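Researcher: Let's try something more involved. This one mixes different molecule types, so please make sure each is placed in the same coordinate frame as the others.
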Amino acid sequence: MEEKKPKKRVHMREQVPQVRARNFMEVPYGYTPEEAVEEASRCLSCLNPSCTKGCPVAVDIPSFIKLMKEGKFIEAAWKIKEENALPAVCGRVCPQEIQCESLCLLGKKGEPVAIGNLERFVADYEREKGEIQIPEKPKPTGRKIAIIGSGPGGLTCAADLIKSGHQVTLFEALHKPGGVLMYGIPEFRLPKAIVEKEVDYIKKLGVEVVVNAVIGKLYSFDELFNEYGSDACFIATGAGLPMFLGIPGENLNGIYSANEFLTRANLMKAYLFPEYDTPIKRGKKVAVFGGGNVAMDAARVALRLGAEKVYLIYRRSEDEMPARKAEIHHAHEEGIEFMLLTNPTRFIDDGKGNVCAVECIKMELGEPDQSGRKNPIPIKGSEFQIEIDVGIPALGTRSNPLLVSTLPDLKLNKRGYIMAEEETGMTSKLGVFAGGDIVTGSATVILAMGAGRKAAKAINEYLKWKYWDTRSLSN
Amino acid sequence: MFKIVKKEELSELVTSFEIEAKDIAKKAKAGNFFVLKIHEEGERIPLTIADFDTERGTITTVFQKVGKTTHHLGTLNEGDSISDVIGPLGRHSHIEKFGKVVCVGGGVGIAPIYPIARALKEAGNAVISIIGARAKNLIFWEDKMQRVSDELIITTDDGSYGRKAVVTVPLDELLRENNDIQLIYAIGPAIMMKFVCKTTEKYNVKTIVSLNSIMVDATGMCGACRINVGGKTQFACVDGPEFDGHKVDFDLLMSRQRMYIDEEKVSFERYKKKRGFNTLWKRKNQKRECI
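Model: All components are placed in one shared frame. Result:
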């Protein structure tokens, strides 16, 4: 087996597009054990592997793949978990094509090893076999850490710090832990049962999870330090406030922020209405505005809710779309109609307060802007209308001031995000660290996890001395 | 889980719960609200914090049975628990000594106006309160309101109790006769708040309203509750729920409150069938209004 290196990547079987576009079940079926071994065997076991360098949490990729080649799937899962507490999540939602897989030697000539698929397989295998290993509890240090936000950044930071022997409490504002993994990413991309299992694992490590706790409202930040007695704190609240287009008619019924649309569908399970109480408009003709992962998710949810037509309206061309390639590909396959170089100008009222159409204008690409992407310019007189009954701006988020506004001594940048040192997450307030979208603005699950990891390391350093030179953050 | 320690039927459609929520009670202030979710399949709905008791560690809410969730809530009893209670949310009322103020509470809006009237009274204001409802059986907390008001006016649409009028009639009279009224607080159905604002606008008296939009997370994340205030989109959950009533686009608010009217019907009908509601119940509620 060792010598035979199949050139082609083992394709992961998926539900056929026409079928899956009408259900909320996961799109790929996952590998069989045989397929997993076959794919793992493609790994060249390079002497000087670079894949790990592409991983924000530095998973020891060659080692876990080696264990897989030997059929030691459980051991492979444990190997990943040394660095990554959420492998079943990462195997599904990481943009591997720009991270680990982009550095795979095989990718230079053909297709890189499907590292994401392999990670997903072993994580699922471990979970299904019920052989979840809980590492031995380290000696308690007597230190207390409060983590605000139980999304990927908070969960990762919590898992790392509990392994160092600290007492860790995760505070979550919603009624279920998981943050964007629960409310944002749809069931068919990341089944909620899997998120729950991953959170369970973090709890089993000894992390206390407090839901329904809106920090800044229920507990003040000072209370976390003084009454609750935290030695350090990690803020990972996510970005929060949805952005709208700022065009007329945006408050008509039927217009949702992507955040709202996805929260209803995912966290509140509105796709099961009326079995679940939360309603959602099942649009017949739906337009989603934006080109990121969230836009793809919203479009594909709308389709699964029964839409006849889903338009994805984006003002640049497909090359500039920030979404993962796989998501764009899936959206195409399922029949989402891409209307590129198109920008909405206003929503039209049906006379009863509901949206009935959107007016758009055609765009052309000009010179590159600050982001390096070509700047779209409207073409005069090219306006046209499309009939819609649901419209979903998916334009990203702004900083949610709910928590930071209660912390006047925490330095924010111009956009309202927390200023934190990149390598440590340290903020201008002693003992307070921050990471994820509340620092960077909308980004990815794995980058938030990377920030959680770095902050955990920094917090451990900080706890040794309870001192930190914060001068680097003064202007 | 959050235990209901006291239940009171204030009228056939209006119920009050005292809920054990120690930490929320500690932080709650007049003007705040909270969100609850009854059980796993439930929706998140915002409700008012009508009272709070730090010592008992409880918050009190008052709700009107309108659709499925509120009817279901009404079937819970003392000792039962609610799965999720989240709060206190929203900005609290800005209380100071203004002088003479009028507090207007309409229907179930009597509940949230109470802690505000009390806070205003405690701050040394002269408080005139107007509470109104469709009929006598929907008026509640008269004694509580009496205690925190220098003057209390009660109105009913049908004249079955107090004065036969809508709340804006005595309000208009008060404003005409007293030119020293500094501030109006009005909470109730959107249509009532709209007309209160129309009335007070004539006299140029600042009017604060508390808006009850549809919400999901109620922490600023989803934007379901967005409204238009002074030409700008605002989120009722984090920018409010209190706003300068003269700047609020009430028609948009009312339109957005009706967004799920069809779905609400489906959900409620299904619930009634499941629980076997009888025809007597239907007859009683024929005139039920949707707020």
